[in-house]
Design goal:
By secondary structure, the protein is an alpha/beta fold. 33% of the residues lie in helices and 25% in strands. It has helices at 41-51, 66-77, 124-131, 144-156, 173-176, 186-193, 200-214, 251-264, 269-283; strands spanning 4-8, 12-19, 33-39, 55-63, 81-88, 94-101, 104-110, 135-138, 160-163, 181-182, 217-218, 220-221, 227-231, 234-238. The strands form three sheets. Strands 5-4-1-8-9-10-11 form a seven-stranded parallel sheet, sandwiched between helices.
Length: 304
């Protein structure tokens, strides 16, 4: 079965600092260790798709530095097509400083070369790759104008589009109208909807209003509580699978990559979310965003 997926997004080197707690302003504390691991939401999602059986092409940019070379090697090692990853001498490769505290994390991203992926870098060859794909998967760690352009190309050619709207920011209506499936977490959805919700009834109402306004499928991820979607107007919450979490970095990217695979396979929404939930649960049991991402044969259930 064809599972051609184009991922347009960021490539970062994750600099992970493990410590017991975060320092206060002006305070210096001792950390436990530092690790350098390939990351970036785009690259993470590309690796997730590839490990789960997709034919994946990555569109992005790195610097001509050691981090950039390492990221390219990592993509190739995971059978991701790197033909459309540019290498710019003017800007350094993007980095993400990740503070790993008690199995959770907080992150500061410096985009670097990722912001050189402007709309005019989307060549006719990249356009053709998007047109021939089953699914386009994008995030927001690259210029918004570029996300707009690639989703327009996909939408105009009947390619299913999935947008993971992270990091959170206000999105123009014309971009949202190009998106088939939107996958915010609860904080990102509150920002997009410009209204908070305090219970499932309010969440269901907001989701219904959103889907009606933008004619798209909305999946709201709820962290440890799982994810939510609407079925015939009714809110369905799919609980997260109970596992012993080691590192939650990249769990959301694993989830989005798995959704893209399931969408490319033409699965119903409920099956897509079930598949993505299993993949994300498997990912958090290992350390590192990409290193923890599961292969297809590691997932439980049926033909997974």
């Amino acid at each position: 079965m064809s599972k051609r997926i184009v991922v347009v997004g960021s490539l970062n080197m994750d600099i992970i600092i493990s410590a017991d707690r975060l320092p206060q302003i002006g305070e210096t504390i001792l950390g436990e260790k530092v690790s350098y691991l390939p990351g970036g939401k785009g690259a993470n999602q590309a690796v997730s798709c590839s490990r789960l059986g997709g034919d994946v092409t990555m569109v992005g940019a790195v610097g001509q530095d050691e981090f950039g070379h390492t990221l390219l090697r990592q993509m190739e090692a995971n059978q991701v097509n790197t033909e459309f990853i540019g290498c710019t001498p003017e800007v350094k490769t993007g980095i993400a400083d990740i503070f790993h505290i008690n199995h959770d994390n907080c992150i500061v991203v410096v985009p670097g070369a990722n912001y050189s992926l402007t709309p005019d870098t989307i060549t006719p060859e990249i356009e053709q790759a998007i047109k021939e794909a089953d699914v386009l998967l994008a995030q927001l760690e690259i210029p918004l104008d570029t996300v707009q352009k690639v989703t327009e190309i996909a939408h105009a050619n009947g390619v299913k589009t999935i947008l993971n709207p992270a990091p959170a920011q206000t999105l123009p209506k014309q971009l949202l109208m190009n998106v088939d499936i939107l996958t915010p977490n609860e904080t990102e959805f509150e920002m997009l909807a410009e209204r908070p919700f305090s219970d499932e009834r309010e969440l269901a109402r907001l989701m219904a209003e959103w889907e009606a306004a933008y004619d798209q499928t909305l999946i709201v991820t709820l962290g440890a509580h799982g994810s939510a979607y609407l079925e015939n107007g009714e809110l369905i919450v799919v609980p997260a699978e109970p596992v012993q979490a080691v590192d939650t970095t990249g769990a959301g990217d694993t989830y989005n990559g798995a959704l893209a695979i399931a969408a490319a396979e033409g699965r119903p929404l409920a099956e897509m979310i079930s598949f993505a939930t299993r993949a994300a649960a498997c990912a958090v049991t290992k350390f590192g965003a990409q290193e923890g991402m599961p292969y297809r044969n590691e997932l439980n259930g049926g033909d997974e």
